[in-house]
């Protein structure tokens, strides 16, 4: 057995259901394969831990897998807030297109400061029209904001960052070490991750998908945010199965709490850019000292090497940078950028991240060294870009009543229904013990 290095082949798992996203790229195939990677690595872990006599079969529902790449929760009798700030979106420049990501207040402030205009879409559009795309991108990034000029695939492949990302592995295994897995008598074939403590230091969207996935098989996930943090419109989707706490890592008392949590952690998942944790005083050596037996997985937007390694980014921006939105435009016969129908880079990277954690845990259980895993949205974009849509099939429709679990989920905002799980093993059914809840709503401690 070896560590996960690529998407699984179709013959390694059973596929049910039908329907696919309409796209220039094989988005549905990416969904089924990345979720299958979780199932296969979990099956190997179950076998390694002797929770079952052999690795259980893995079954993926194609329709549900594709739908989970969208939004998994439907509120009943109330509305979710919008995912997007009114200013966020694509704008035409003097020589092309650019996307501004302004969901966070400080990112919106940075973009408006560069443009010198009010937070009104018409005013932003007028200001952007006088800029060259790459010049505006550089100016917004330098001001502390996030933006991405639209590039073609050829331009990205020639770009220094595009070349750096293409040379990186899909999962960068690094810093191997021996890890002693703690005894987890709660773990069973039905709930194989019960008792596993996962410390979640991630934000929108890939990292939370990874930890939500681990919670679906019994892991105890504790997410730590800064006090007052919120992600309106998305938290109800990705806080499922987790406890959501808050700590200020610039304050001594909260740092002590964090270090105590880390010392008792089995899995650390974080989405900080290279060097960000170091600046908080938690570099790799310190994390290893505080948590000598924790498996670690990390992700960033633009890869771990190259001139943009420390650049902030999100799925929609990476699609613009890496040529996906431009290729989609050609495929759709559109004048405007044409993104993927869902934030597939986020979701696929999240599932691959969860699979990498399971792969490292299985290696540790076999007595092998367990390295840390690093993934990026940009590297997942390279994977998807090599998968042109060729399969014929029924176009995916919006979720129907039968796609949802009939049991009501009483979230921290109100009742609703969750899509049925897209992944099941012959020994276990993916489900969550806790409903979705608000940020900063739980105390920062491990139960028991």
From TrEMBL:
SUPFAM superfamilies: CoA-transferase family III (CaiB/BaiF). Keywords: Transferase. GO terms for molecular function: transferase activity. The keyword Transferase applies. Transmembrane segments: none annotated. PANTHER family: BLR3030 PROTEIN, SUCCINYL-COA--D-CITRAMALATE COA-TRANSFERASE. This is CoA transferase.
């Amino acid at each position: 057995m070896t560590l996960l290095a690529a998407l699984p082949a179709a013959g390694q798992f059973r596929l049910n259901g039908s329907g696919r996203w309409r796209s220039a790229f094989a988005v549905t195939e990416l969904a089924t394969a990345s979720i299958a990677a979780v199932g296969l690595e979990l099956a190997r872990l179950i076998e390694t831990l002797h929770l079952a006599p052999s690795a259980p079969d893995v079954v993926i529902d194609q329709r549900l897998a594709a739908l989970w790449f969208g939004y998994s929760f439907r509120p009943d009798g109330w509305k979710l807030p919008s995912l997007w700030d009114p200013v966020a979106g694509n704008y035409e420049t003097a020589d092309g297109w650019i996307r501004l990501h302004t969901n966070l207040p400080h990112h919106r402030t940075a973009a408006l400061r560069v443009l010198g205009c009010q937070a009104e879409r018409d005013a932003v559009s007028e200001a952007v029209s006088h800029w060259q795309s790459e010049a505006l991108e550089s100016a917004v990034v330098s001001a502390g904001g996030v933006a991405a000029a639209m590039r073609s695939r050829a331009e990205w492949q020639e770009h220094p960052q595009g070349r750096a990302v293409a040379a990186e592995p899909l999962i960068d295994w690094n810093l191997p070490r021996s890890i002693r897995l703690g005894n987890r008598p709660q773990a069973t074939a039905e709930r194989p991750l019960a008792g596993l403590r996962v410390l979640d230091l991630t934000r929108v969207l890939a990292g939370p998908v990874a930890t939500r996935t681990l919670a679906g098989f019994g892991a105890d996930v504790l997410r730590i945010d800064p006090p007052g943090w919120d992600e309106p419109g998305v938290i109800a989707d990705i806080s499922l199965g987790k406890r959501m706490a808050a700590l200020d890592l610039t304050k001594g008392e909260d740092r002590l709490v964090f270090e105590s949590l880390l010392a008792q952690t089995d899995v650390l998942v974080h989405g900080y850019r290279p060097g960000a944790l170091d600046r908080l005083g938690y570099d790799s050596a310190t994390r290893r000292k505080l948590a000598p037996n924790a498996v670690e997985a990390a992700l960033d937007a633009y890869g771990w090497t190259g001139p943009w390694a420390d650049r902030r980014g999100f799925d929609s921006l990476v699609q613009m940078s890496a040529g996906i939105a431009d290729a989609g435009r050609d495929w759709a016969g559109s004048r405007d950028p044409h993104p993927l129908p869902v934030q597939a880079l986020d979701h696929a990277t999240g599932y691959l991240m969860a699979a990498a954690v399971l792969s490292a845990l299985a290696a540790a259980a076999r007595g092998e060294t367990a390295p840390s895993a690093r993934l990026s949205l940009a590297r997942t974009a390279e994977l998807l870009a090599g998968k042109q849509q060729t399969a014929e099939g029924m176009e995916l429709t919006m979720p129907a009543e039968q796609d949802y679990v009939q049991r009501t989920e009483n979230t921290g905002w109100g009742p609703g229904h969750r899509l049925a799980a897209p992944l099941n093993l012959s020994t276990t059914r993916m489900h969550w013990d806790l409903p979705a809840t608000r940020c900063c709503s739980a105390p920062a401690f491990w139960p028991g």
